[in-house]
Amino acid sequence: MPTNVTAQYRTAEAAFRAAKTIEERRSALEAMLATVPKHKGTEKLQADIKRRLARLRQEAERHPGHKGHSVHVEPEGAAQVVLLGAPNAGKSSLLAALTHATPNIADYPFATTKPQPGMMRFEDVQIQLVDLPPITAEHMDPWLPNVVQTADAAVLLADPSSRDTLAGIEVIRERMAAVHIPLVGALPEDAEARELPLPTLLVLSKADLADAGDLEILEELYAGVFPIVRFSATKHIGHQQFRIELWRLLQLIRVYTKPPGKRAERSDPFVLHSGSTVHDLADRIHADLSERLAYARVWGGKIDGQRVAREFELRDRDVVELAT
User: Fold this and answer.
1) Helix axes 43-62, 22-35, angle to 10 degrees
2) Model confidence over 89-137: pLDDT tens digits?
3) Which of 105, 203, 283, 286 could form a disulfide with 290 if both were Cys (CB 3.0 to 4.6 A apart)?
4) Are 94 and 232 part of one and the same domain?
């Protein structure tokens, strides 16, 4: 449903994305909750903000006045996606294959010791991938959940050629659930207040080295849990499918604007959440524009310059002409 959030909410949301400490994130979330419009269309958004607040309050209670090591990855592009996996699952190889990043790729475990971001292009947008240290039953960096909980989605990598693949997947799911970040194939309509479900794509890495039967077994086991992609960094298997499935998982849309009587600007789209309206687009451009907006014309699909109201719900690749 359309949300029609206010300019004050957008400001608070930007502050949350830029926050580096628990207190800064909590303050921004409280501002978001206070300024979000209260109607049926924002019920899911309100619930998500409350879940994030509950998680941060618990974190603050566990570490009162804690000044220890803090890790923050500045978000860039249309979305931030974290890479999770057991040692040698292929996270760094995927990052190197799809971005210009140069992570440390090695055959020994725990070669990745700190976050390594890289920008992946999907058609006309950029998505930030962040490689994180591996997770095992015995070890998970204490700062890692704080990075994961602020991401927009996760990629869970598994090496089907390893005999410990299934155990590795379940260990990561259990460890994330233990810190109230359950990995899910799609966001649930409702969840416990303290939970922060994270949309997750399961990637079967090193697919060129795996037995076909092992791949099929894993796909059968997790078909109803996560969207799944077969991938090989070296043989170029699944690269485009990975981009497509990740874009679907993020539930984002691209919208292009055009001045009256001129062509649309298609090199730099506005990226909005699925379900966003013409009013949301205007608000993203400038708060004053959303207040003065009278109507819009939309091109896309079967619509060819149709005049629509500010509550009209936009779709991916729509072209919009705003009128005040």
Assistant:
1) 150
2) 999 999 999 999 988 776 656 666 789 999 999 999 999 999 999 999 9
3) 283
4) yes
